[in-house]
From TrEMBL, chain A:
Domain spans labelled ABC transporter: 27-265
PANTHER family for the chain: ABC TRANSPORTER RELATED (PTHR24220:SF685), IMPORT ATP-BINDING PROTEIN (PTHR24220)
Lineage: Bacteria, Bacillati, Actinomycetota, Actinomycetes, Streptosporangiales
Organism whose genome encodes this protein: Nonomuraea turkmeniaca
Protein name: ABC transporter ATP-binding protein
Keywords: ATP-binding, Nucleotide-binding, Transport
UniProtKB/TrEMBL annotation, chain B:
Family matches, as InterPro entries: ABC3_permease_C
The protein's name: FtsX-like permease family protein
Organism listed in the record: Nonomuraea turkmeniaca
Ranges of residues in domain ABC3 transporter permease C-terminal: 722-834
Compartments, record wording: Cell membrane
Protein topology in the membrane: Multi-pass membrane protein
Length: 308, 854
């Protein structure tokens, strides 16, 4: 039976609603592609990455070196422009922004922290002046704001100290204060604890959590350290420029923290199996799927691997 | 914008910029002032040493209608004063004078042998002292051949008493048809005979002896001085009478910049004098000023060309080095800018901060250099203000542009380690265009008649730029060949060093663009300056003809010559006799010298001058004007017959134009000499004492006189200053380029040291990395500097600075140029060596981590 016009219209509306992947989430990446071109060499850093992060979430993005996580962060921070796909933060389309929009975006929507402690702060300014710098650049200095933030993050004692007089952990906490100086909606951190020992890392994560809880800022941390997942609500794994897995941390009824790892299913139904699962069962090229009542079973192919 | 400027953090780099800018501004503002001051000095000297009759403006008139009253002269004098155009007026002094003089007024009955002219000077009473008799008084009348003729009282100069036998009380009858009688009532003497003033009225001060064309007997001429009353008896109808109004020119107030205006003003006055109808008499302007000014302009133009070439080169290099300094500053602030940009700094804010930081160093420094330049004596030219402004604007603009370009996108991770960026078509096209234009310009400059034109200034700049571009494009290619060779060797350091040199980013282009013109212009300046120096020496020899020349009016007795020979320090004495000789029987005269040519040749062996050998008792060397006559007879004491043996363009120390001949001493009936050519170390005063009534000249004195000329002095000293400054700038450029690449190099070296590179190897690596660029640039700069004079040589007439001898055939002074280029290369190598040696104790981890920006 042929569908009526109204049915077709309804289907189209449905499809459009479906296409609005992620709905009104804070960060939406849909089929994001970033290709670096240098003379004669093309590097595909992101190859169709999907990611949805809600407002106020504290998310870690983990992946091996070269998996594309830093590229994703640069795209989200407005420092880099993706080649194709959709990237939206707070409803702003990062692909179609003009340089002026991009500047406003960096000034008021996003703050970020690099891995190298030395890179985050200007060595010839003290902590307070460093925190005031983004406010000055945006032309909106609020008196006392810098000290408030430093106090909030537990580094008020460093206010008048130069970078060289602070420990690595203090530097990174001041860097967090710098990142949230202009009250951004989103803080991005690229390996913020990469250069720190575990005890200092704890302090930095605590500071990030403080910012997340007290100020309601969405925090995205990029790291190659899988243990970070213990510190955040959600961990997104990236492999080869695509999101591959998610680990959710929740409190069980007994008060225990339970971390469960999920594989990511994309909109067209693609699923990335963990590499160790595949090698354990010697899965290659194709697998057999069977739909059961409450799950889908995945079996290695029945065929014997060819002898040659 | 409130951007914190890290002044203290970059104090060192800022200090370098401050020093570079201050020195550049001082040079750019000060050198033109100094050169202009000496141009002015040269003009003043030219105007004040020339006879007043040449420089002063004289309105002359051969009257149709006689002026009989002093007042008539004075009113016209005021009129001429008012007619002087504005440009000339400041140079005209009010103490001018008027004269009325007859010429060729014969004394009756002397058959044209003696002439006593009638003269009146408006200011005679101030100029002469009456030493005998009294001042001339009113005129009266007397009878002559039945007619009543005027009797004018006159005074004559004391010289006329001796030379013409005149005396107080004598009455002379003048004229051959229209008679007038003069009575000598007084003898006078000039109050100051050396005053330039007298050049207008030498006929009053001296008795002149003239030989009429074709005549054998000398005529005596004298102009007498009469009172105002005498004017009534002077008439243009009866005599050759000339009225003159002299407007004296004070050369001390002249400025070289005004020369074109002065020229135009003189022409304008000449026109006015001719066309204004102030009386029935025609007037004209007599002055040698235009010729003086033109000669000066010609010399000035050559000086300006050379100096502007040198100063232009200096400015370019100074700007290049400052830009290099700005680059160092912005590189050092890279982290600040990148962070600010990432944290929400707009491009304008970041570029503004870069510009502000640069301006903070450059503006006060430029002001200081500008202020210091006022200590340099000289007029304030436009370039004095413009030069420092150009420096400041260039530095600040470069900072703004560079920061803007580098931070256009907030994330700037350059991956130029991955692959060499291929040059864009646009850039290659532009470069080909520049090279093409330079070659065409050079061709045009040589092909068309060289004169003062902008092409002369454009071509060197274009050639330098073209050479720099070609160097930048091509220098990696031979290096890559070397790299291949090095790759086969077992040692790692040459391979690594050369590879790094060959892969150097285009950042190394800036030092090339600075070094190349620095070397080229300094080699050029050295060559020009050496060439002027050697031509000056040649000119001084040409002027004197021997180390020492003693010239006497009369014959020098043999006993005196013996005494000279016996004087301490005298090594050799050659006798020579000069004189005017009559050629054949015709009334034609030539200058001649009789000398033992072989001895003379020995005397001047090893000097820049020479005389061709002469053999045979009666053979002679003749000037081109006497060429092709065959053997001819001359009248000189006896009448020998001489046979021309060769043609000689000039006789060093004697003549360089006209008719002259060189003969052996044997043509004279007996050896005699009025000239001695002396070699040895003996003072001029000593010789002057031995040979009284002789003038003693030496090659050293002539050379000093040529060098003393202010234009010559300034050309040479400016060239020296420019050469030294450029050499220093080249060194600074090398040091700065080392510093610019320091962080990156330190990272690479630190990395290699973790792999086992020793300190010594690290130093060799740095030297190998830096040296190829410096060597290639030094060689190209050297070639360009040597080529420039050949390309421009004909366009720059330097004869004015070399005793009017043409400066030609620039012989490349390879030693000097090689020293410059070699010194630079050695300095660069030492700098690189020291740089690495100093950085040896750096903490490897820190270097590697701080540098790691990925």
């Amino acid at each position: 039976m042929n569908p009526t016009l109204s049915e077709l219209e309804a289907r189209a509306t449905d499809a459009r609603n479906k296409a609005a992947f992620g709905g009104d989430a804070h960060i939406v990446c849909d089929n994001l592609v970033r290709i670096y071109k240098t003379e004669g060499v093309e590097v595909v850093a992101l190859q169709g990455l999907d990611l949805v992060i809600d407002k106020g979430e504290l998310v870690a993005i983990v992946g091996a070196s070269g998996s594309g996580k830093s590229t994703l962060l640069n795209v989200l921070s407005g420092l880099d422009v993706p080649t194709a796909g959709v990237a939206r933060v707070g409803g702003m389309d990062l692909l179609s922004m003009t340089p002026r929009d991009r500047l406003r975006y960096r000034r008021s929507v996003v703050g970020f922290i690099w891995q190298q402690t030395a890179r985050n702060l200007l060595p010839y300014l003290n902590a307070r002046e460093n925190v005031e710098l983004p406010m000055k650049l945006a032309g909106a200095t609020r008196k006392g704001r810098a000290m408030e933030l430093l106090e909030l993050l537990g580094v008020a004692s460093c206010a008048t100290r130069k970078v060289s007089d602070m420990s690595g952990g203090e530097q990174q906490r001041v860097a967090i204060a710098v990142a949230i100086a202009n009250s951004p909606q989103l803080v991005l951190a690229d390996e913020p604890t990469g250069e720190l020992d575990s005890e200092t890392s704890e302090q930095v994560f605590a500071a990030l959590r403080t910012a997340n809880r007290e100020l309601g800022v969405t925090v995205v941390i990029v790291t190659h350290d899988p243990l970070v997942s213990e510190q955040v609500d959600r961990t997104v794994g990236i492999r080869d420029g695509r999101t591959s897995s998610e680990t959710l941390r929740r409190e069980s009824a007994e008060g225990q923290i339970i971390a469960e790892e999920y594989a990511v299913l994309d909109r067209v139904g693609r699923l990335q199996l963990p590499r160790d699962f595949m090698s354990a069962l010697n899965m290659e090229r194709r697998v057999r799927l069977e739909l059961e009542s409450d799950h889908i079973g995945v079996w290695p192919s029945r065929e014997e691997p060819s002898s040659d | 914008m409130r951007f914190p400027l890290p002044v203290r953090a970059h104090a060192g780099t800022l200090a370098v910029l401050v020093a570079l800018t201050a020195v550049a501004c001082l040079l750019v503002a000060g050198l033109p002032r100094a050169t202009q001051a000496s141009f002015d000095e040269a003009l003043r000297r030219a105007l004040t040493t020339a006879p007043a009759v040449q420089t002063d403006l004289t309105v002359a008139s051969e009257p149709v209608e006689d002026l009989r009253e002093r007042a008539q002269f004075e009113s016209l004098y005021r009129h001429w004063q008012h007619s002087v155009p504005a440009a000339l007026r400041p140079l005209i002094t009010p103490d001018g004078h008027m004269s009325a003089k007859t010429s060729r007024t014969p004394v009756t009955g002397t058959g044209g042998g003696t002439y006593i002219n009638l003269g009146w000077l408006s200011d005679a009473d101030r100029r002469v002292d009456w030493v005998q008799g009294r001042m001339p008084g009113p005129t009266s009348t007397t009878r002559h051949e039945g007619e009543t003729i005027p009797l004018i009282e006159v005074g004559v100069v004391d010289e006329a008493v001796r030379e013409m036998g005149l005396g107080v009380g004598q009455i002379k009858m003048l004229g051959e048809s229209d008679y007038v009688a003069v009575k000598i009532v007084g003898i006078f003497k000039a109050k100051n005979p050396g005053d330039r003033y007298w050049s207008h009225d030498l006929d009053i001060l001296h008795v002149s002896k003239q030989r009429p064309p074709g005549g054998m007997d000398e005529e005596l001429h004298l102009t007498t001085l009469m009172s105002d009353a005498g004017l009534t008896a002077l008439s243009g109808a009866a005599r050759h009478l000339t009225y003159r109004w002299v407007l004296p020119l004070d050369g001390r107030a002249a400025s070289a910049l005004d020369v074109p205006d002065l020229d135009a003003a003189v022409a304008e006055l000449g026109r006015l004098v001719k066309v204004q109808e102030v009386s029935n008499n025609p007037h004209r302007l007599d002055t040698g000023l235009p010729k003086l000014l033109d000669d000066f302009s010609a010399a000035l133009a050559a000086a300006q060309t050379v100096l502007y070439l040198a100063l232009g080169g200096l400015l370019t290099v100074a700007l290049g080095v400052i830009v290099l300094g700005v680059r160092l500053l912005t590189d050092r602030m890279e982290h600040t800018f990148a962070l600010a940009r990432a944290r929400g700094g707009s491009l304008r804010q970041v570029a503004g901060a870069g510009a502000a930081m640069t301006a903070l160093a450059v503006a006060p420094a430029a002001l200081a250099g500008y202020a210091l330049s006022f200590l340099v004596p000289g007029p304030v030219l436009a370039v004095v203000h413009v030069g420092p402004a150009v420096v400041v604007v260039t530095a600040v603009a470069f900072a703004a542009v560079r920061v803007s370009v580098a931070h256009r996108t907030p994330l700037h991770e350059r991956r130029d380690d991955v692959a060499d960026a291929r040059p864009s078509v646009r850039r290659v096209t532009l470069e080909v265009l520049v090279v093409g234009l330079a070659l065409v310009g050079a061709y045009l400059l040589r092909a068309r008649g060289l004169s003062q034109d902008p092409l002369l200034l454009f071509v060197p700049v274009a050639l330098t730029l073209a050479a720099a571009l070609i160097t930048l494009r091509c220098y990696p290619y031979p290096l890559r060949l070397l790299v291949r060779l090095a790759a086969r060797g077992r040692a790692a350091v040459p391979f690594l060093g050369l590879t790094r040199a060959a892969r150097a980013r285009s950042a190394s282009g800036l030092p090339v663009l600075v070094l190349l013109p620095a070397l080229a212009v300094s080699v050029f300046a050295t060559m020009i300056s050496n060439e002027i120096a050697s031509t000056q020496v040649r000119a001084s020899w040409q002027q004197v003809g021997a180390p020492i020349k003693v010239t006497s009016v009369g014959e020098i007795p043999a006993s005196v010559i013996e005494k000279v020979r016996a004087t301490d320090g005298v090594e050799q004495v050659v006798m020579a006799q000069t004189g005017q000789v009559q050629l054949a029987d015709a009334p034609e005269y030539a200058a001649a010298i009789a000398v033992d040519v072989a001895q003379w040749r020995r005397l001047i062996a090893g000097t820049p001058i020479s005389v061709p050998p002469l053999s045979g008792g009666t053979s002679a060397l003749v000037s081109p004007a006497l060429k092709g006559r065959g053997a001819f007879e001359i009248g000189w004491l006896s009448r020998p017959r001489v046979t021309p043996q060769g043609v000689i363009d000039s006789v060093p120390g004697f003549w360089s134009s006209g008719k002259f001949l060189v003969m052996p001493m044997t043509v004279l009936p007996r050896p005699q000499a009025n000239t001695l050519l002396i070699k040895g170390d003996v003072s001029r005063a000593e010789l002057a004492r031995l040979v009284p009534a002789a003038t003693v000249d030496s090659q050293k004195r002539a050379l000093a006189a040529i060098r003393e000329d202010p234009l010559t002095g300034i050309v040479r000293s400016t060239l020296v200053v420019v050469t030294v400054a450029l050499g220093l700038y080249a060194l600074v450029a090398v040091v700065l380029s080392l510093l610019v690449g320091a962080a990156e190099r330190a990272r690479a070296v630190s990395f290699l040291r973790t792999l086992g590179l020793s300190d010594r190897q690290a130093r060799r690596l740095t030297v190998l990395e830096v040296l190829p660029m410096v060597l290639v640039t030094a060689l190209v700069g050297l070639g360009l500097g040597l080529g420039l004079p050949i390309a421009l040589g004909p366009g720059v007439d330097l004869s004015a600075y070399a005793g009017d001898l043409q400066v030609s055939g620039y012989s490349p002074d390879l030693v000097m140029a090689g020293v410059l280029a070699g010194g630079l290369a050695v300095a660069a190598a030492l700098g690189a060596y020291a740089h690495t040696a100093l950085g040896r104790h750096r903490d490897l981890g820190a270097v590697l981590r701080v540098g790691d920006q990925s």
